[in-house]
Amino acid sequence: MVQLSYERAEDLYDSIRQRSLKGECLLFVSADVDSLCACRILQTLLKADFVAHKIVPLSSYADLDDADSSLIRGNDQLRCIIFLGCGGMLDLMETLSLQEDVMVYVIDSRRPLHLHNIFGTAQVIVLDDGHIEADLSEVKTAFRGIEFASDTESEEEEVLEDEGSEDDTHGEDNEDVITPDGKRRSGEHERAEKRQKVASGMSAKSKRDRRREFRHVIAEYYVSGTWFGTSVALQCYMIANELARTTNDLLWLAIVGLTSQFIDESIDSEKYTTHLQMLYDEVRRFNIEPNQTSSRSQSSTFLSFPSSTNDESDIPSTSSNNIVIRFEDEYRFMLFRHWSLYDSMFHSDYVVSKLGIWKERGKRSLMNMLAKMGFSLHECQQIYVYMDVELKKILRQKLESVAPQYGLDNIIYRSFVRQHGYKCSISASDAVYGLSALLSAAPEACNRLGVTIKWNPIGNSRVASDDASQVPKWWLKNFYTAFDALDNLPLLQSGLQLCMQLQRAVVRQGIALIDKNSIRTLKSFRFAVINDGPDLPIFVHESMLSKLAMFLLAAYRERGRRNVPFVLAAYRESAQTYLVVGATGTTAIGQVRRNHFGVEFRKTAMKMKADFKNDGFDTAVMEIAKDEFGPFDPKKSLEFYQDVLGMKLITKVDNEKGKFTLYFLGYFDSLPSTEEEKRKLAFSSPGMLELTYNWGSENDPNLRYANGNSDPGRGFGHIAIAVDNIEGACARFEKMGVRFQKKLTDGSMKNIAFILDPDDYWVEFVKCGYAGSNFPEHVFPSVVGRPILRAEERVQTVQLKDIMVGDEAAEVRTSLQMSYPMENGIVVDFENMRHLWNYTFDEKLKIDPRDSKILLTEPPMNPRQKRVETVQIMFEEYGFQGVYIAIQAVLTLYAQGLLTGVVVDSGDGVTHIVPVYEGFAPENLTRRLNIAGRDVTRYLIKLLLLRGYAFNRTADFETVRQIKEKFCYVSYDLELDQKLGTETTVLVENYTLPDGRVIKVGSERFEAPEVMFQPHLVDVESAGVAEMLFNTIQSADVDIRPELYKHIVLSGGSTMYPGLPSRLEKEVKQLYLINVLKGDASRLNNLKIRIEDPPRRKHMVFLGGAVLADIMKDKESWWITKQEWEEKGAQCLNKLGIVNAS
User: Alpha-carbon dihedral of residues 37, 416, 126, 116, nearest 10 degrees?
Assistant: First the structure.
């Protein structure tokens, strides 16, 4: 039982050298960056001593089994085996066919170590990084207490304990729980003595209790999860250091190995910083300028590290062929020295997750941040080498001042850079990314990504198997190529190019999983499966799948979601299996948690008797047979259609002859009591859903179910369900973690959504709406059109009429003279308004007014004579039985479930700021701004004219309105957007006109809605909407102002511009700070302001009206009846309680 500390590293190496000179020496190397660097360090030492050795790359325990049978078993010449980055977690004496004169040396960072390697045999030597000495004293006592127990004790325990009450001394057949077989090691005389000492003077019960406690201690050690110790490369460098044979090249390898652990989140920031200090001292020792004093190079502390990448004092002089290492802070966006700054940031896990790049808002945040730094997008999209030198000099300064404003607080960490003369600089992280890409990308993936790599043809002397006829695995070629890249700069640079493409794929796939809601949140972890897609071949390698899992963990951590682990699976079609990885999340960057998935995976798989393989060095990675991810699970599908879609299972029919089961589901309030009646209902009702389960299909590895729009059966077959509140339904689905194929906001069709059932079948949701409706039955523009040329009878397939109204007019607007019967929310042309009402009642609603009541809405301060004339028309011309008129702002609050608040109602013609208290809207506080959607459209026409696009006809107005609704937004930072608009083309969008012409819309997108905040742009002398809102609230009684600030509700189509709520809140706070707090920003936190922007605010007035009408429909006293009109005339309007306006 041997473990050696670094102080005895010289003894360890001397033992390796002496044994290797007498026979063969094998280096078993894990296929990861850290082990690769360690291998090169150790190889350098062995070569210098003329020690022959063979490098054997390993990617799994299966490879170790192959190597055991071909290189170890029966090999009389073998004297020494060295494990680098693997072997520590496995009982090597049990696994390998070792002869007595073979010594095994383990240098591994994976934890937990197998206790038999440390304490159970003298034939295995483990290099201790401090973990064994500091942390395993109790475990060591427990192990020896069980291992050295006498045979008599064991027999007594078997007699006294109940059968089956305790596990075997060495646990289950699992390398993570004690040992695989529980065999004792014999032949060591000292053990016999220890057995006697342990057994003497104790009762049988005490011995049992002690052994039970020992087993518990050992079990706790093994099931405590996996973690990482000191970098293997750093341990090998320490060996070289003890031998006084360190060089700058070996130092760089140690730096790269340590950095790989940090980037892969194998170690936390604290451990990284501790090791960094030691490496910094080494860098100063090997890379010192001639004029530097020895005291400066030797006496350094972490606090004396240079703090700026532009500090030249610590940068050694460089010549064209000089290779030096220098300390330099590194950014958390990858490969920026070799990529463009924009691409580097856009594709870095840290920036993507912090800004939420998968959303348009996140992309804009990135561009805004760069603009705020003073970096044009054109410069940022150039390769960093060709970027303006002055910008590169101020990059760190700008990042430190601007990045924290966007949540990028830890954008810099400490690292090293290697300068290759005048050729280029390679940072430690660059080297890790390049080597990792070369190790993990299969040739098929490289071809798919369009990257050419000069792969190393595996030489006969370096193949693990002596059978040259065997076709080498692709990862072997990758291993030797990456091994060569350690000192081959062009090859490493090709790895950097490959890494860029791989990272694009990671971000692309991660964003797709998040955006389509393909990630399921379960009780204790999140889960996602990649079944297909162009990038699937990239993610069938465990390192790439792990990178994707870590990206998703970071994304969910920054979204403020529950910090639970992540399980990610990718389908390996060639093997008909799923590769599954488990990753643990942390609450902050730089933290690391132990990974328990190795133990949990095995427990679950064995409990389910699943067909799985878990022979990788990373225990949190396993391969599961495709059958375990069966294409159709009746239970899952039934739960989905019942719990998610709200259907009821009517009946199921088992067909013994056909070997299938049919499930019938539908929407019913109640079901018959007998099975016969249920079957009759299932076969006679319209709109039934039938699911078919073919018995045994889960055992067919080649089976694929059509999902509606992919092979097999490519087409567009799917289920469609109509709902009255599609927005609410989609919000519920998102909350439940349902996967989306198309969200409401995707594409041009904004009124439909597609979700996926457990078998990836598409389910479409569409809108279906009088009093009590949750959505307007019909929405159309308030326009009336008359043909420009009376001779025209038809435009394409549309028959022209003398009068065309609403959407039928909008469809052929280019051939019509358009009229707008409402201005600023008030009827100005009752003749054309009658055409609109006729169209509404006859064509759309198809109602008989003589049997109906009608609830009308009006803006505040509507002139009384307009109200009177409207009611007169409703009673005398249409014959309605009852009329009610409500203020639009009050209805908006009803829809929000409020009675007090302030409504910002902006429609097509007018904007009103209406404070409402306990359901009453005081006229003296109501403000009116004659700027709204129509004015924004007119200003957009003017702006487009300046760009060279003339929209002169009345029909063009509708075209520009559609451009406005599609592209316009409110700028949060006007100065930044103006800079983006003038210096870049990122804001430019193309729009195809009805005649097929394509126009470009750029800065006009935010300039047009700006008239709502700056009315003087359209020659209106008035306060903007933000200032008017502030003045309105401040004019209210001081006691109700806090309630008004807390309930600012947006309503109307012209509040739908993206960015309007945040801009409104920003300006109101600024006005409050200046006018109320007199510039005292410390008191601004006391202002509780909330702007409510309901997703359906475009129809908030309708929703509130529908609620009110549903309440009123049976309350005759609330309505103005036809009889009251005939008896009292206009006086009956006083019943409404609306304050008259002049």
Answer: -90
* Cα gap 1012→1004, rounded to integer Å: 14
Q: Enumerate residues 6+ apart whose C-beta is below 8 A from 865.
A: none
Q: Strand 2-4 vs strand 124-127: parallel, antiparallel, or unpaired?
A: parallel
Known binding residue 114? Answer is no
Between CA 378 and CA 937 the distance in angstroms is 31
- For the chain, give percent helix, strand, coil, nearest 5: 45, 15, 35
Bridge partners (DSSP) listed for residue 722? 766
pLDDT reading at 828 higher than 50 = yes
Taking the model in full, what pTM does it have?
0.58
The answer for residues whose C-beta is within 8 angstroms of residue 804's C-beta and 6 or more apart is: 784, 785, 786, 812, 816
| Residues 741, 761: Cα–Cα separation, whole Å | 10
Query: What local confidence, expressed as pLDDT, does residue 492 receive?
Result: 92
**Dihedral sign (CA 872, 877, 879, 885):** negative
Query: Rounded distance, CA 673 to CA 680, Å?
Result: 12
- Give the 3-state secondary structure of residue 289: coil
Judge whether 685 and 674 are in contact, CB under 8 Å: no
Supply angle C-alpha 437, 439, 441, rounded to 5.
60
The answer to whether the peptide bond before residue 1042 is cis (omega within 30 degrees of 0) is no
* Rounded average pLDDT over 15-20: 91
Report pLDDT for 310: 43
3-state secondary structure of 258: helix
Query: Kindly report the CA angle at 119 between 114 and 120, in degrees rounded to 5?
Result: 85
CB-CB contact of 881 with 850 (8 Å): yes
Q: Give helix then strand counts, H and E, for the chain.
A: 42, 41
DSSP 349: H
Q: Are 26 and 54 in contact (CB under 8 A)?
A: yes
Strand, coil or helix: 520:
strand
Kindly list the catalytic residues.
Answer: 764
Q: 818 vs 782, 783, 811, 949, 963, CA distance in Å?
A: 10, 7, 12, 20, 18
Q: How many CB atoms lie within 10 A of CB 475?
A: 18
Sign, CA torsion 634/638/639/644? positive
- Scanning 574-621, the segments in alpha helix (DSSP H) are 597-608
Q: What is the pLDDT of residues 372-403, one digit of tens each?
A: 898 988 888 889 888 888 888 899 899 989 99
**3-state DSSP of 896-942:** HCCCCEEEEEECCCCEEEEEEECCECCHHHCEEECCCHHHHHHHHHH
- The DSSP bridge partners found for residue 596 are none
755-780 exposure pattern, b = at least 16 Cβ within 10 A, e = fewer:
bbbbbbbbbbbebeeeeebbbbeeeb
Radius of gyration of the chain (CA): 37
* Alpha carbon 222 to chain centroid, angstroms: 32
| pLDDT averaged over every residue in the chain | 80
Of 264, 426, 250, 238, residue with least CA distance to 349 = 264
> Judging by DSSP bridges, how do beta strands 566-572 and 577-583 pair with one another?
antiparallel
CB 351, CB 408: distance < 8 Å? yes
690 belongs to an annotated ligand binding site: yes
| SS3 per residue for 344-364 | HHHCCHHHHHHHCCCCHHHHH
Write down the residue that tokens 């000192």 correspond to: 487
Indicate the range of 180-194, 282-296, 795-809 predicted with least confidence. Answer: 180-194
The first and second tokens of residue 1069, run together, are 């706070």
718 annotated to bind ligand: yes
Q: Is residue 1008 predicted with pLDDT exceeding 90?
A: yes
**Residue 343 in this model has a pLDDT that exceeds 60:** yes
- Measured from the Cβ of residue 824, the count of other Cβ atoms closer than 10 Å reads 19
Q: Which residue segments constitute the domains of the chain, with CATH numbers given?
A: 3-148 (3.40.50.2300), 333-409 (no CATH), 521-628 (3.10.310), 630-698 (3.10.180.10), 704-766 (3.10.180.10)
Of 156-160, 419-423, 456-460, 946-950, the poorest mean pLDDT is in 156-160
CA angle 370, 372, 375 (to 5 degrees): 45
